[in-house]
Write a structure and sequence with these properties.
With 391 residues, the chain is of the alpha+beta class. It has a domain of 143 residues: 2-Layer Sandwich (Heat Shock Protein 90). The chain has nine helices and seven strands. Strands 2-4-5-7-6 form a five-stranded mixed β-sheet. A two-stranded antiparallel ribbon has the order 1-3. It is elongated, with a radius of gyration of 38 Å.
Length: 391
């Protein structure tokens, strides 16, 4: 949803609720019956016909039963009975018209307005204490819910548009800033290297030079993350062995953990099928998760990486025995620029999620404070025949 909204022009209104479509489909469903060429009778006639049939039969039976009566007396009784039958039919039509037809006409009018997008409609017969009143109350409740859903969609749309514009501005700023920083930074790095050559091997300034090199490397890393966020490129997906991609990431992570008492265990899965993925980008995702796991472990710890295949999906998990993530922070860890580390950029997990979603996959996370965290990257084995994982 954010990507779609980000592509929309600022100020674009949110799409209407599908009320018009619902009503249009209802009308189209009725059209074949209306245009089928069959006899269409008014509902009053349909309601009165059974009563008229019963009254006529009663009149016939009554006529047969009074054959032996004298003509004037018999004629008067028949007239009274006929008038009574007509009066009953008229009273029935009046009652049906008042109790049923008027609410139905009002309901049709309000449905037509609802189909035109008016979400403030309501019916007046909802106060009645009968089945017609129940229908009116259900209709009013449905319209109220549609109106609240429309307001919520409008609010979310405005929020997402504002966020998309904010991120677009930050992206442009990051791109320009990265280029402005990298050029003088390269010059500084060159001067530092030249100065380091002229320093004696016993000079205490060599330690300062080493610290400066690390800071330059950190700045380059931050600039790289900013450029990846500002100018993402689509993945080049090919079918290849996911074990090789994982092993490459584990190897580099072990180099980062050489000076720490952290064991990184990679459980190779020879039964894992080949997966369609961009090996460079998935390598970036897994390496980011592994480096985060290393930073989360204080002292002795262990990181376990394993891969499994389940119903057309490859699941790669990275589990650590670190300090864990508090529950209140879990919803925010994938937000750009959100970080709990003093030297972090807050872009690593955001980039990892974006790359995974571009592979039609997703990232799951579970964590217990004091026990560790488990990230699971889910990727479809075949992107062309598999829908988005978890959709």
């Amino acid at each position: 949803m954010p990507e779609t909204l980000a592509q929309a022009a600022p100020g674009t209104q949110s799409p209407d609720l599908p009320t018009g479509k619902i009503v249009a489909e209802a009308r189209s469903a009725d059209e074949p019956a209306e245009n089928s060429g069959g006899l269409r009778l008014n509902w009053q006639i349909k309601a009165v016909l059974p009563i008229v049939f019963v009254l006529i039969n009663g009149m016939v039976l009554f006529t047969l039963a009074t054959v032996s009566w004298q003509n004037p007396q018999r004629h008067m009784v028949l007239v009274v009975a006929g008038a009574g039958a007509i009066a009953i039919c008229a009273a029935l039509v009046f009652v049906l018209t008042y109790t049923i037809q008027r609410p139905l006409i009002e309901l049709q009018e309000q449905i037509a307005k609802l189909g035109d997008g008016d979400l403030k409609v309501s019916v007046s017969f909802a106060k009645r204490e009968d089945e017609i009143g129940d229908l009116g109350r259900n209709f009013n409740r449905m319209v109220t819910q549609l109106r609240e859903n429309r307001e919520e969609i409008d609010r979310l749309h405005r929020t997402q548009m504002s966020r998309a514009e904010h991120l677009a501005t930050l992206g442009e700023l990051a791109t320009g800033l990265a280029h402005e920083i990298r050029n003088p930074l390269a010059g500084i790095a060159g001067v530092i290297e030249i100065a380091a050559r002229d320093l004696p091997s016993t000079s205490p300034a060599r330690e300062v030079i080493q610290d400066i090199r690390q800071e330059i490397s950190q700045i380059n890393h931050i600039i790289g993350d900013l450029l990846q966020t500002a100018r993402p490129h689509p993945p080049e997906i090919r079918r290849s062995d996911l074990n090789v991609t994982i092993e490459h990431s584990v190897m580099l992570a072990r180099q980062q953990a050489l000076s720490k008492p952290i064991e990184i265990i990679w459980k190779n899965n020879p039964d894992l099928p080949q997966v369609e993925h961009d090996s460079d980008q998935i390598h970036q995702v897994l390496l980011n998760l592994l480096l985060n796991a290393i930073q989360a472990i204080q002292g002795i710890g262990r990181i376990v990486v394993e891969a499994q295949a389940q119903e057309g999906v490859a699941a790669v998990s990275v589990s650590d025995t670190g300090k864990g993530i508090p529950m209140q922070e879990l919803p925010n860890i994938f937000r750009p620029f959100y970080t709990t580390k003093g030297n972090g950029t807050g872009l690593g997990l955001s980039l990892a999620r974006r790359i995974t979603e571009e592979h039609h996959g997703r990232i799951e996370v579970t964590s217990t404070v004091g026990k560790g965290t488990r990230f699971t990257v889910l990727l479809p084995v075949d992107k062309r025949t598999s829908a988005t994982v978890g959709a």
